Amino acid sequence: MAKIKHHNFLNTVHEVFTDAKNAGVLHLYAGGNSFSGRTIEIDGRELYHFGTTGYLGLEQDPRLKKAAMEAIDRYGTQFPLSKSYISNPLYRELEDSVQKMYGHPIVITKNSTLGHMGVIPSAVDDDDVIILDHQVHWSVQNAAKMLKTRSVPIEMIRHNHLEMLEDKIKKYRDSKRHIWYMADGIYSMYGDYAPVKDLMSLAQKYPQLHFYYDDVHGMSWVGKNGTGYVLDRMGELAENVLLFGTLSKTFGASGAVLACSNPRLYDKIKTFGGPLTFSAQLEPASVAAAMASARIHLSPEIYDLQKELRERIDYFNACLSATELPLIDQNESPVFYIGTGMPKTGYNFVNRLMREGFFVNLGIFPAVPVKNTGVRITISRHNQLEEIETLVEAMEHHFPKALEETQTNAERVFHAFKLEPQAKSVKKVVDGPKVQVFDSIGQMDREEWNRYLGGQGVYDWNGLKFLEGVFQGNAKREHNWSFRYVVIRDESGVPILMTFFTLSLWKDDMLADAKVSQAIELERHNDPYHLSSQVLSMGCLFTEGDHMYWDTSHEWSGRAQHVLLEWIEGQERSMEAKMIVMRDFPKGTPLHETLYGHGFLRLKMPSSCSVELRAVESIKTYVDGLSSRNRRHFRKDIQPFLGRVKKQVVQKLVPTQLEQVKKLFGEVQARNLGLNTYSFPDALFDRMNKDPLWEFILLESLDEPDRVLGVMFCYNNTDRVYVPAFVGMDYSALEEYAIYRQLLYRTIERAIEKGFPKIDFGMTASFEKRKLGAVVQDKYAYLQTDDNYILELLGVMEGQH
């Protein structure tokens, strides 16, 4: 499988955003010569604006506009000096006003992103630890990651999971001075809250616990003087809390603000805070607009504005409650999220609403899991009650149409968000492909299976019979796999699509950087199932190759793929899988668009290698046919070592050999943390040794005849392909005898002797295999996760170890 390295992640995000951009729902440009806040022009059409984060509408307040214009006239467009030297003349009044709002010392920053980058490294000491809520804003996570260079541990918990938080606190309470928990006050996608009061109770139990809140989406529309949700819930700003608010968004101006009631910590942050020291200060227009807004916040008017917004929020909630739309979190914030599940349904729904005259935001990966795509709707004072009601009517009308047009239903959407469907979807009974599912290859016709999926890897009929015997009835969880065989047929019973899946326990870091896996393995000494999940995977961890037959020329080919994907969703729920993996596809697979639209992310896998041997008479003929460079490699790096070991092909190992090859395979697996999997059961090797379709290519020491230096475990697939499935090596003799290169060469030699037309050389080590004539092909996997927690956790760990 592929490793989710940083560039791989960025490529994935790029593809997702490009897909949404091409659908016309992202990277849009507003038009028009002016803004009212109530409407926004897109492609020449005036749409009602339900996408703003200016919830109180202050960005259009005449007082803020006038103050900004006057400041430009008096002081110019900017004040180009670092604030460490001197602040523009308006700053002192703004700082005084905002400090009155909070009742505590404040620091004003250029924006919240730069603010986090300045404050977090200053506030967190080297002997502290950071714990992130996995949905805390990217800007907080990014700033926290800066502390990796100082070896500050960074942990992550599932969203609002206080039991998990307490476990992390217990882990560090005896070794760390301060334990910083970082969270949002109001989360920007679903509009849900941090459990502030419960968290403060936890701090009473653990005095080391400190909080860092990003409350920019809770600002202005709630709380005394509009100071936000977090302070409203706390009542008083505790000394163990750093609180970020905003002077933009609902505040109507620009910039951000940090409030801190701890004098020592405040002085430390204020004196020197990275970007706080070296970045440019707010422009005079922004400072003046913020001053005008602060005056409103310090007056009784702020509560009138909050009340007006509350009336609109309540009305929207009341309208939604009369529908069956999947509102993901019902609360009293101005942020609402209607789930669509699949991205293509989200695109369709957003486009329908825009054609109806409403602008809303698309929620998409990485802000939310791909299969939790949806529409984010924000309510502001600009919105009128009749427009709110009409929006709900439009959503109620277009939501089922968007579902139908993208071949899904409401029940699937509710399941994607782990919500209880309010009403069962009524599925239309139509003629079309019929799906058959079996839980054993023994229930499948051997000839039919081999006709469509034989001749690859270890998953012809006999190979799967072998694997079912190995991975069932074992003592350990990771050694027991559930198999599902899927055949989708047309009305005549002819297969349109055929594949198989397994449910098995994977290490969550199987796709991570090897250094991350190395650190996680230390935790597994005490808890072997730390960071592991049940995964529903096409194929299995033992097999490689094209795991799916799909007749793209069949008139029902498109319908067959939709039947398969709906079946997979049902299996994910019934088997309680945390991830779905469809794998071993070429880059140009015709399934790409469909899988992306259904919420799958594409990730690069290690390349696949194969060797064509048709019409090759001998190993000499084969070597002579290599390129001049590869022949030089053979003469220099392989040929001199061939006579230094004894090679033999064994159908049945004696007990001493069997124990040695088990150990040698274990050596390879233990070192392969770049593809970190659980071990295989001992029964695997015992059954290989009894199965006539398996054989072992051994390299033995000439000086110690009973010593096995290397082994290739090889499967004979229906006389159509030779499969070196695994390798075992003695690493103490690896370079002295060129063991790996010799095993590759001997495998080719053996396949030619047996008359196989092809070798499936599998993945990894493509560089070495290419030098012996292997054809290398890029392969991709499509992955759909239960949520983003594991991906984000591994991203946080990347670079720490």
UniProtKB/TrEMBL annotation:
Keywords: Aminotransferase, Transferase. The keyword Isomerase does not apply. One of its GO terms (molecular function) is transaminase activity. It holds the Pfam family Acetyltransf_6. Residues 670-769 form the BioF2-like acetyltransferase domain. Its cofactor is pyridoxal 5'-phosphate. It comes from the Bacteria. Residues 50-394 form the Aminotransferase class I/classII large domain. PANTHER family: CLASS II AMINOTRANSFERASE/8-AMINO-7-OXONONANOATE SYNTHASE, LD36009P. This is Aminotransferase class I/II-fold pyridoxal phosphate-dependent enzyme. It comes from Flagellimonas marina.
